[in-house]
């Protein structure tokens, strides 16, 4: 009888501890981690013995809406400016449901405060096309001081005969990416920075066609289990889900985990991030 009571008490204790742990994890995942913002920094040598250094700061998947406000965007802008970027790259999904976001007219007042040496560049994400976004996105970004690259490129003159090609592809889910058109104006002697929303598209582009590719879309899975990895990622972010990938000897892809959330406002083991790349050319 005493043994039975001890067993019952142990079961009850385990159930209480398990319940408390579950509540703690849920609370952390919904209330704490979605508000965390970390900075990840990388150094890459794109040209052996290069003398030019350029800092590229990437942010992605803001998803302005019920779970990410303009006030939070203001804090993000301040943090990015403190990093003193030479180039700022936004890899898509500005608003969660663009037609429903009432603060659309005020976005450019906030994003327009971003400062960089050589310019700010943006590409389209699926949320920028969908939800009425195709009516607002390009105008907002241009007013914010961004050059929106939709299957086109831009050349940055770094001096000393060095140039950096910035190539932007259209969204692959609701847009129409055209690799040949995007690369038509590239300086073949320069280093190549590719911006795109969906990371898995790099296999279609060809790894030899970029030195560094920056993507978003996956949100890193939003919920990541140790050892297991992301529970689920969206289409075109199945192969490359988060972080840095070395593709061949001299080609890299970075998948940013994003700033905001979509569908469910949850993050676990996958905080929002700004990614910084100090490139030697």
From TrEMBL:
Alphabetical GO biological process terms: lipid A biosynthetic process
Gene Ontology CC entries for this record: membrane
GO molecular function, one term: metal ion binding
Domain annotation Calcineurin-like phosphoesterase: ranges: 54-219
CDD domains xrefs: MPP_YkuE_C (cd07385)
Family the UniProt entry places it in: Belongs to the metallophosphoesterase superfamily.
Required cofactor(s): a divalent metal cation
Key word DNA repair present: no
PANTHER family linked to this entry: PHOSPHOESTERASE, TRANSMEMBRANE PROTEIN WITH METALLOPHOSPHOESTERASE DOMAIN-RELATED
UniProt protein name: Metallophosphoesterase
InterPro entries: Calcineurin-like_PHP, Metallo-depent_PP-like, Metallophosphoesterase_sf
Signal peptide as annotated in the record: none
Keywords: Hydrolase, Membrane, Metal-binding, Transmembrane, Transmembrane helix
SUPFAM superfamilies: Metallo-dependent phosphatases
Annotated organism of origin: Psychrobacillus glaciei
Transmembrane regions: 7-30
């Amino acid at each position: 009888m005493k043994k039975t009571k001890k067993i019952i008490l142990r079961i009850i204790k385990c159930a209480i501890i398990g319940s408390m742990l579950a509540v703690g994890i849920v609370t952390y995942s919904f209330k704490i981690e979605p508000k965390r913002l970390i900075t990840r920094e990388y150094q890459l040598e794109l040209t052996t013995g290069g003398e030019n250094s350029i800092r590229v700061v990437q942010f992605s998947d803001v998803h302005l809406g019920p779970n990410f406000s303009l006030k939070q965007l203001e804090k993000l802008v301040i943090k990015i400016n403190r990093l003193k970027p030479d180039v700022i790259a936004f890899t898509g999904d500005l608003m969660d449901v663009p037609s429903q976001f009432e603060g659309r007219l005020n976005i450019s007042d906030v994003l327009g405060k971003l400062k960089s040496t050589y310019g700010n560049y943006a590409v389209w994400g699926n949320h920028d096309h969908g939800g009425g976004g195709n009516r607002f996105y390009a105008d907002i970004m241009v007013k914010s001081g961004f050059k929106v690259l939709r299957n086109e490129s831009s050349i940055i003159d770094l001096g000393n005969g060095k140039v950096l090609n910035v190539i932007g592809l259209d969204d692959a889910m609701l847009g129409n990416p055209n690799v040949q058109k995007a690369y038509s104006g590239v300086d073949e002697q320069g280093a190549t920075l590719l911006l795109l929303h969906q990371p898995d598209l790099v296999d279609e582009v060809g790894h030899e066609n970029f030195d560094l590719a920056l993507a978003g879309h996956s949100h890193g899975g939003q919920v990541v289990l140790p050892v297991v990895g992301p529970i689920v990622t969206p289409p075109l972010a199945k192969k490359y889900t988060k972080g840095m990938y070395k593709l061949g000897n001299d080609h890299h892809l970075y998948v940013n985990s994003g700033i905001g959330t979509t569908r469910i406002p949850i993050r676990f083991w996958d905080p929002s991030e700004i990614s910084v790349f100090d490139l030697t050319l």
